[in-house]
Amino acid sequence: MKILLDNGHGIDTPGKRSPDGLFREFAYNRYIASQIHQRLKSNGLDSQLLVPEMEDISLAERCRRTNQICRQLGSDQVLLISIHVNAAGNGSEWVNAQGWSCYTTPGQTRADELATSLYRAATEHLPGHKLRMDYTDGDPDIEENFYLLRHTSCPAVLTENLFMDNQDDVAFLESEEGAAAIVRLHVEGIIQYLS
């Protein structure tokens, strides 16, 4: 099974930072993705960074890269996890929104099982943090027609790892403990899904 890690955004993406400008989403996503990649490889899993570049790669190109690998290996032999940090405000002030979430496309798909495994791991590794969920269809993932999830042919999820415009969330994300928790929940959620 090939596990593709998509680190959202790039150095040139406008916005995508904390209100004080110190937390940059592109840099955090790349750090977390690289740590997950290393941990998966050390567990003997076939992991690949979808976007090694620093600049923002278009969603269409991210989908093209994913689907090319799906054609080579078979869509049932590929997983895609897109890593992000959420925001709720206009970027200029701190807000109270908080929590971790995982998105899939609408309807029951193979990605729902991956999302559920990630939520289980998030419950274990983010005690005291809100988990944002939607159980209207019987499972915790939030369903949206995000371009990357809709236009890739393998099971694909998008994680929003707390909020870059919430001061408490940013402090946790930037701590050694917080970054390690975000990495662990992804690694363990993926391994749980594969088993």
Can you walk through the features of this model?
The protein has 195 residues and is of the alpha/beta class. It has a single domain (2-194), classed as Zn-dependent exopeptidases (Aminopeptidase, 3-Layer(aba) Sandwich). Helix content is 41%, strand content 17%. It contains 6 helices and 6 strands. Strands 2-1-3-6-4-5 form a 6-stranded mixed beta sheet, sandwiched between helices. Strand 1 (2-7), helix 1 and strand 2 (46-49) form a beta-alpha-beta unit. It is globular. The chain starts with a strand and ends with a helix. The model has no long low-confidence stretch (mean pLDDT 97).
Provide key terms for this protein.
single chain; 6-stranded mixed beta sheet; Aminopeptidase; 6 helices
CATH fold type: Aminopeptidase
Structural class: alpha/beta
Number of DSSP E strands: 6
Q: Helix count?
A: 6
Radius of gyration: 16 Å
- The succession of helices and strands, N to C, reads EHEHEEHEHEHH
* Poorly predicted segments: none
Could you tell me the mean pLDDT? Answer: 97
Annotated CATH homologous superfamily: Zn-dependent exopeptidases
Briefly, what CATH class? Alpha Beta
C-alpha geometry: globular
* C-alpha end-to-end distance: 11 Å
Q: Biggest sheet: strands side by side, in what order?
A: 2-1-3-6-4-5
How would you summarize what this structure contains?
41% of the residues lie in helices and 17% in strands.
